Amino acid sequence: xxxxxxxxxxxxxxxxxxxxxxxxxxxxxxxxxxxxxxxxxxxxxxxxxxxxxxxxxxxxxxxxxxxxxxxxxxxxxxxxxxxxxxxxxxxxxxxxxxxxxxxxxxxxxxxxxxxxxxxxxxxxxxxxxxxxxxxxxxxxxxxxxxxxxxxxxxxxxxxxxxxxxxxxxxxxxxxxxxxxxxxxxxxxxxxxxxxxxxxxxxxxxxxxxxxxxxxxxxxxxxxxxxxxxxxxxxxxxxxxxxxxxxxxxxxxxxxxxxxxxxxxxxxxxxxxxxxxxxxxxxxxxxxxxxxxxxxxxxxxxxxxxxxxxxxxxxxxxxxxxxxxxxxxxxxxxxxxxxxxxxxxxxxxxxxxxxxxxxxxxxxxxxxxxxxxxx
Length: 374
Ligand SMILES: C[S@@+](CC[C@H](N)C(=O)[O-])C[C@H]1O[C@@H](n2cnc3c(N)ncnc32)[C@H](O)[C@@H]1O
Known about the structure:
Blueprint: H1 14-34, H2 37-59, H3 62-65, E1 71-72, H4 73-80, H5 84-96, E2 100-103, E3 106-109, H6 111-114, H7 125-131, H8 134-141, H9 143-149, H10 153-158, H11 163-169, H12 171-193, E4 203-207, H13 213-221, E5 226-231, H14 233-236, H15 239-245, E6 252-256, E7 269-273, H16 281-294, E8 300-305, E9 307-308, H17 315-326, E10 333-334, H18 335-344, E11 347-354, E12 360-366
Parallel strand pairs: 4-5, 4-7, 5-6, 7-8, 9-10
Antiparallel strand pairs: 1-3, 2-3, 8-12, 11-12
Helix pairs in contact: 2-5, 2-7, 4-5, 7-12, 12-13
The structure holds S-adenosylmethionine.
C-alpha cells in the first residue's frame, strides 16, 4: 500500500452483524406485539411521515445549519428564510421521534441526524434526498398498479426513457442519485472488497461502477492490482477525485461507455455491483454472455447484489419492491435464480459469500460445455 493511501476500515464480522439484526428484529416485533394492533399499525403507516420530515429537514439545510450546536427555530428560520412557526413544528416533530434533542427551545442533532450534514464523514444526505425525492414518491404511489399488473411503474410513467436517460436530462437529480450510490457504497466497500481475494486477479473491470468507490477500495487493498472503471460519461466525471482520494488513480483506467453496447475485452475479473438486479432476465443474460465473451479464459465474474433469502431483516424485500417499481423486470434473485441466469450465459456459480452488508458477493467462471438451453 503506498504512503498516500488512506487506511481502509476493517469490516465487522458477518455473524455479529446478523445476530444484531436478528435481535433488533425480535425487539421491534416484541414492542409492536405489546401495543394494541390498531395503534401498532398506525405507527407503521405513519412512519412515512418521519421519512418525509427527514427529507424536508435535510433539503432545507436545517441539518447543516445545526452543525455548530443546538439553535432555536426562530434563528434557523431567519437564516434559511423559512416560516418560523412551521420550522418549529417540523423540528418538534423530529424531536418527538427522538431524532433531534430539544432543551429550552433549542433543537440539536442526534447521532442519527448528524449524518444528514453534508460534511459528515459518513454522510447519508444524498441517500435521504434520493429516497424522499418526488420521483421516488411517484413510483411508490403506483405500487397498487404494479402489483395488479406486475409491470414497472417507471415504464408506465416514462415509456422507453430509462431512469438512466431521465437522470442524464435532470442534472440536480443525477447528482443526488449518484451521490446516494456513492454514500451507500462507501459504507459497504470495506466489507465487500474483502469478501473475495481480488489480489488473485491481474486486473478488475467494474461495469457500472459509478464514481469508483468500490473499485478504489479494492485497488487500495491490493497494490499490484489494476482497475478499469466503466460507466456513463457524466457519472465517471466524479471518479478521478475518488480514485485520487484512495491513492489509486495511477492504477485505474476510466472508460466512459455503455456496457450494453460492448464490454471491454481481456480483463481477468469483471465486477458488477447492483447492476443485475436492475435488469430483467433476458437483458441480464445478454450482459453476462457479453462478459463471458470478453473475459480471459481463467477469468471470473464478481456479482454484488442481495442474494435472497440473505440477509435477515426487511431490507431485501423492500429493495426488491423498489426494483419492481423502477426497472423493467429487475428483481433481487435467489441463489437458484442467479445460477439459472449464469448457466444461460455459459457461466457457472463458484461461490456466494455473505457480507456484513445487505449484499452478498457471488463469483462465477466459464461453464464447461457452454451456455445451457434454459
Ligand atoms: C445502481 S447504480 C450502481 C453503481 C455502483 N456499481 C455502486 O454500486 O455504487 C447502477 C450504475 O450502473 C450505471 N449503468 C446503468 N446502465 C449502464 C450502461 N448500459 N452502461 C454503463 N453504465 C450503466 C449507472 O449509471 C449507475 O452508475
